[in-house]
Amino acid sequence: MSGLRIYGIARTRAFRALWIAMEVGLDYEHLPIEIGDTGARAPEFLAINPNGRLPVIVDDGFVLFESLAITLYLAKKHANGTLYPGTLEGEAKAWQWTMWALAEVDRGVNIWSLHAVRLPPAERDVAKRDEALRVLAAPFRVLDAAVARQHYLLGNAFTVADLNVAAVISRAVDMDLSAVPNLEAWLARCLDRPAARKALALKTKADNETPAEVTRRIARLNRL
Ligand SMILES: N[C@@H](CCC(=O)N[C@@H](CS)C(=O)NCC(=O)O)C(=O)O
Predict the structure, then answer these.
(1) Which stretches of the chain are assigned E, i.e. beta strand?
(2) How far apart are CA 101 and CA 128, in angstroms?
(3) Spatial separation of the C-alpha atoms in residues 118 and 215, rounded to whole Å
(4) Which of 4, 20, 188, 190 would bridge with 28, disulfide CB 3.0–4.6 Å?
């Protein structure tokens, strides 16, 4: 056991931490705790992550929250020079795409997936769904162009930049992506990796076991 604990049910952004852990072949303990008062907002969890959000990791006593800080940390710790770029410029590009994913597409994909797929049909808000698609259109064109002439974001090798962006938009696989075919092919390439498939299997299982009441809570707590 590596001494790494990953907190958070795989349906949440804990999926990102699980993917990187599997990608670099770590031994870890997964604690699939839920959002809300009996999970991430319970006093014993708030003592680990005062945000009351998921995921958080404890790595041999080192505590880290923010899903994409976790992926960058684990990639640098365990795959420096390969999955984590070994040059200053490569590292900066990985940060660029990571921050881009958070700023430009994270919220839109979440809103879309709740109001197109995850909430019970009668409770989906079509206006929110369509607005999310409008917000995503321009950044998706940027991503489409970035992978038009190369297999991955930083060149021809898969890196943590791809993992972060693909993990953030993973729920876009259920969208009609025909307007951005390079993005669609790149996303399929990333999510087809053995580690991604294993992490996605955990996420899909958790999705399927999530009661509608919890999905409503997700929309409410995250203001989506
Ligand atoms: N920026 C944070 C966001 C964390 C976050 O919002 N997590 C959601 C689950 S995906 C959560 O815990 N929501 C429940 C709540 O806010 O109470 C990250 O990337 O880790």
Answers:
(1) 4-7, 28-31, 56-59, 62-65
(2) 20
(3) 7
(4) 4
Find the 173 Cα to ligand 1 centroid distance in Å. 21
The pTM assigned to this predicted structure is: 0.97
Q: Which atom of ligand 1 is nearest to the CA of 68?
A: 19
* Ligand 1 midpoint to CA 19 (Å): 17
Distance CA 133, CA 115 (A): 11
* Ligand 1 site-directed mutation target among 6, 13, 98, most atoms within 8 Å of CB: 13
Tokens coding 7? 């907190």
CA distance 143 to 58: 32
Nearest CA to ligand 1 atom 9: 12
* Count of residues in the chain: 224
- Count the alpha carbons within 13 Å of 90 in the hemisphere toward its beta carbon: 19
| Amino acid, single-letter form, for residue 214 | V
